[in-house]
Structure formats: structure tokens, C-alpha cells
Design a protein that fits this description.
Mean pLDDT: 79
Number of helices: 4
Helix content: 40-55%
Strand content: under 5%
Number of strands: 0
Largest sheet: none
Shape: elongated
Oligomer: single chain
Number of domains: 1
Radius of gyration: 19 Å
Distance between the termini: 17 Å
Order of helices and strands: HHHH
Length: about 100
């Protein structure tokens, strides 16, 4: 999940599985929602459970890799990825759509 772009539908499926687990129901049995999903995904300091929605987690992990790619100029993996995908252009060049 940290290095690949996962489709939204897969993230939504992860969230659906997590919601079912927290509510204790099955696919055949429906339970009462004791707390809304927005409350569950709030930070602990704000009164939530501190869980992350998968779409947000996916975006954060991809941004982390991008940041490490930008700041890790001398790292071997960063040089390989820049050479493979940027092909001599700058990382944020307008024609670089990767």
C-alpha cells in the first residue's frame, strides 16, 4: 500500500470490513451503529478511536514515499526511480506525469 496506487474500490472494501468487525455483525446479520464512522476515524485527542480511513492512509503513505524520493537525493532507490520515471527531467517537471 505504501508503494503502489491502490484503487478506491479496494480501500472502500477495507473500510467496509473494518466497520463490520467493529460492529460485530455479519453479512447476514445487521447490528445497530453505536458510533458514526466519522467519529471512529477521529484522532484519540478529539474523542475518536484513532483509526484511519483507508483512502486517507493510502494518500499519506504515497506522500511519504514522494517526500523521501525528493529529499533522499543520494539514496540508491531514489536515484533508480528518478532515472526510470523522470528520464533526465526534474521530478516535478510539467511533462513528467508519472
Amino acid at each position: 500500500m505504501q508503494i503502489t496506487k491502490i484503487p478506491r474500490s479496494v480501500c472502500d472494501d477495507f473500510d467496509r470490513i473494518l466497520r463490520r468487525f467493529l460492529r460485530g455483525g455479519t453479512s447476514l446479520e445487521r447490528r445497530i451503529h453505536l458510533a458514526p464512522w466519522a467519529l471512529i476515524t477521529r484522532p484519540l485527542e478529539s474523542g475518536g478511536l484513532g483509526l484511519h480511513a483507508m483512502r486517507d492512509l493510502k494518500a499519506a503513505l504515497l506522500m511519504k514515499i514522494r517526500w523521501l524520493l525528493i529529499t533522499g537525493l543520494d539514496e540508491t532507490w531514489a536515484r533508480v526511480l528518478r532515472h526510470k520515471y523522470c528520464q533526465g527531467r526534474e521530478l516535478f517537471h510539467p511533462l513528467n506525469k508519472t
